[in-house]
Amino acid sequence: MAFLCQRDSYARECTTTVVSCSPAEWQTDASGGKKEVLSGFQVVLEDTLLFPEGGGQPDDRGTINDISVLRVTRRGAQADHFTQTPLSPGSQVQVRVDWERRFDHMQQHSGQHLITAVADHLFGLKTTSWELGRLRSVIELDSPSVTAEQVAAIEQSVNQKIRDRLPVSVRELSLDDPEVEQVRGRGLPDDHAGPIRVITIEGVDSNMCCGTHVNNLSDLQVIKILGTEKGKKNKSNLVFLAGNRVLKWMERSHGSEKALTALLKCGAEDHVEAVKKLQNTTKLLQKNNLNLLRDLAVHTAHSLRSSPDWGGVVTLHRVAEVLEGKGAGKKGRFQGKATKLSRRAEVQALLQDSVSTQSAEE
């Protein structure tokens, strides 16, 4: 039997019964890339509204009796909910899903099905895997390259199908159903249990999938393909956004555009040219600065040679260690920087001491 989240992806809350609750630990990523082990409980429910990760889709977030569920994983035919508060087996509980996260995942997952089907239909580009990321999603295509014209055609076709308001339906087939062989899919997990779910976009695609989906393409709103990236050997990654992610991307882009307009003192259509001019100016300034440093070095050398103390050898000290300076030299040229100029007085005292010692020796 499929979970409630799979039978009705639009359900936001439900009442069910706790089957079991056992102590457990969960290793999570903490700040700085370090692993953190959390102690808690693995809760199994009679049915669940919270989707356990699978099929390239992350798990849901939500609550059980207002207790936060931090992780949901599938184990055979059941879902394990990780909480940090125990729940009594046999008790009835209220389950609520984080709807914003759920609907976002529905949009991205249905969007992936649509793009995959259209890319295959138009250009024979087969999908080998996909990832639903936090900010963007990626479809791996079994091709070393995808042209800009192909990307544009795929984007135009998928958005036309969204405007056509094509329905999306879910069916359950038994494992021995002959129709299973005709349905597109990348195989079943080893611990699969229960019926096989088939997601069908009317007139476009039928595909085995365990994830949550919209029931009409109009709920995708819009799909934006951001471009392609080089993937694994002989593969290409198609990067896309669907639904609300497109709106958020536009908000971020518009914010950046407004900030650049204020900084560059020109309209958005002139931003690229303005930045190119700044880059050229910076290169010219760097070149002029290098020439000035060379002239200064020559002038300093002449001044030292003209000094009354000239005796064939002159030393010029540039103290670095005390100032936490770093630098390097190559072919007679040196460059560096000091990060602790607050110790200049100490450096000056060291230099004066050095000069006094040399004078005494002479």
Give a verbal description of the structure.
With 362 residues, the protein is of the alpha+beta class. Helix content is 33%, strand content 29%. The chain is built from six helices and 16 strands. A seven-stranded antiparallel beta sheet has the order 4-3-7-1-2-6-5, with no helix packed on it. A hairpin with a 5-residue loop joins strand 1 and strand 2 (35-45). The longest helix has 35 residues, at 271-305. The radius of gyration is 32 Å and the shape is elongated. It starts with a helix and ends with a helix.
Main features:
362 residues; 6 helices; 4-stranded antiparallel β-sheet; 7-stranded antiparallel β-sheet; alpha+beta; 33% helix
How is the secondary structure organized here?
Elements: H1 4-7, E1 13-29, E2 35-45, E3 62-64, E4 67-69, E5 71-75, E6 78-83, E7 92-97, H2 99-123, E8 127-132, E9 137-141, H3 148-163, E10 168-173, E11 196-201, E12 205-208, E13 223-230, E14 236-242, H4 244-264, H5 271-305, E15 325-330, E16 333-338, H6 344-361
